[in-house]
Design a protein that fits this description.
Helix content is 54%, strand content 14%. The protein is an alpha+beta fold and 207 residues long.
Length: 207
């Protein structure tokens, strides 16, 4: 087994379990790169998402000059091999390190063929279709929302418990009140009987 094959196998094993089967190698152009006759070389699993990342930092929107579809499990391997192959074409001043001379664009496909990598070129109309596909909407929760979602159930639970305790307390007070009233009635009734008995005894003593 050649060194190249072992390296490919390393990346295949590393990417096992990842969703999807397609990765992309791309070259992006932008007017700000033209002063250095440069382009951006990179790879991604989602070309639409990558385009949106670039657009947020571009006053004038750039475009993908070349997009090649490659197996996802070899995407990182391809990216590394291309950057090693075109190392002498690197355009680096004090910024990013993935910028290369535009002269590499027609050489990329032949490089992949030399590496034995199967690829498919994405035509411009298909690239445009990929980058305008709406991104799936995701529910974004702020820290305040998360806190509220956690606090509300706890608050409701505490309120319910307090209501139950209040009801028990009122019931207990009510039961105690009835008991006290009953005891007062018994006590007054007893004293009244004693009083009447005392009067009766005194009355009989006199006669």
């Amino acid at each position: 087994m050649s060194h190249k094959s072992r390296e490919q196998q390393y990346y295949i094993r590393k990417d096992i379990g990842k969703k999807g089967t397609i990765g992309y190698v791309y070259v992006r152009k932008h007017p700000s790169y033209d002063d250095f006759d440069a382009c951006k070389l990179g790879s991604t699993k989602n070309i639409n998402a990558r385009d949106r990342q670039y657009v947020t930092g571009e006053v004038t929107r750039g475009h993908f000059a070349l997009v090649l579809e490659v197996p996802l499990n070899l995407m990182k391997y391809v990216d590394r091999r291309l950057k090693e192959y075109f190392k002498e074409y690197s355009v680096t001043i004090d910024g990013g390190v993935e910028f290369y001379s535009k002269s590499i664009i027609p050489l990329i496909k032949s490089c992949l063929k030399d590496c034995g990598i199967k690829f498919k070129k994405i035509h411009k109309k298909d690239i445009d279709a990929l980058v305008v596909t709406p991104m799936p909407k995701r529910r974004v929760y702020s820290l305040r929302t998360k806190a509220r979602n956690n606090i509300v159930p706890l608050r409701d639970k505490a309120l319910k418990k307090r209501t139950e305790l209040e009801a028990k307390r009122k019931k207990k007070i009510g039961d105690l009140t009835v008991e006290l009233v009953f005891m007062d009635f018994i006590r007054y009734w007893f004293f009244y009987r004693v009083f009447l008995l005392t009067l009766l005894i005194e009355f009989r003593g006199e006669y």
